Amino acid sequence: MSRSARRRGALAVAAFAVGLLGFAAAGAPAAAAVPAPRDALKQALHQVQPLASQASASAAAAELTRATARDLWINDREADAPPYGRNIFAASRQAVGKLAGVSAPVTNTAIGLIITADRSLASNAIAEAHGGPATVLEAAMAALSTGNRQAHAGKLSAAIDLYAEAWQSAFGALAHLVAGEVTRVPSATLAAAAEQALAGTRFGMSGPMIQQSLPPLTSGGKPEVFYAGSEACPFCGVQRWGMIAALSQFGTFSNLHLMQSVPMTPPQVRTFTFFGSSYQSPYVSLVPVEVWSNVPANPGLVRLQSLTHAESVLLNRFDPAVETPFIDVANRFIIDSSTVDPQLIAHKSWTQLAAGLADPSNVSTQAIAGEAEVMTAELCEATGGNPASVCSSTVVQQYEAALPTLTGKGGSCPAPPGPGGPPPARDAGANRTARSGPVAVAASRCQG
Question: The domain containing residue 364 runs over which residues?
């Protein structure tokens, strides 16, 4: 970059900082006047596009196009959960850097919109995580405050980095908050909600294929629950809520992370991912594989985790259409669909779904409790009724009796398009525990 171009960039940053200081001094406008973060970035893109004859402006427009891509957003106010949503901040930072070398009256407006968008993403995430761990939220708020000071000083790239840090910390607090609710649903509440789900016709719960002759599926000497899914799939999304509630009665999860299904395949649901999590139980083993991420590829999706050869072989036996979610409980109960329809929890935030778990009359809670007690009944069969504190429940026993009669259809996601067929096998030696018995797995992106 020439000396004159560098000088123009410095002047642009200085002018923006002065404008931002003036904005702060005058007081923020009414909330209705502040555009949603994605809308603000779109407005910045609209400002920059007429300058495309300048190379730096063209590069900035390309970064803003990346930042506003639909697959990075839950809605216009909320970015995808980490790590994917962080790409918005990375693209924003690049765009601001490119715009520093652009000489045009609209440059400051575009930069201001970008900074406003990233700051709003961070502050919105902090607000949603209210009630999460205080130390994590304090760190998020400190990063947000420091980011504001850096923006006022004209250090815009540093400000965006701090907004990204604040946003990610807030998501950590939110994940802790929401996971705490779903892993500690009071047994009486779960039972009351599940009873209503079993009696209600609106749920149409799907039951498993019941197997009597397969060799037991075990891991570490315990009955194994094998799950394969796709982060993109709404049917996998709804199923994880019930799985986590059920398995938490038998053991303990760690490092659960938030995730959302892709918006291109409605309904979009807020959920978790098992990728990066762990589970400990004296009664059962959980082996989850998130085969596909929710990151688009051309065609299909980016693969996240691989399958063993044994998993792929059994997939061809029980799930030749490669539909997900796929769940095998000890080779006794096998299903390649969700237990309930994801519409039952759609269009609700993580905090709305988590808070609703205290209310057995809540429809979303009934859906989650119903699928949880289906799996609890299966686990109690697989463990021989252990622990008795869980398996002796009247509602669990009702669900055990009802398993053969659950003939509804939750739904599933077909395999994504693209060459190569099923995902490649992973080395069985990479598994953390010794396993016996066949497993069938498939996971894929939902198609509309």
Answer: 183-436
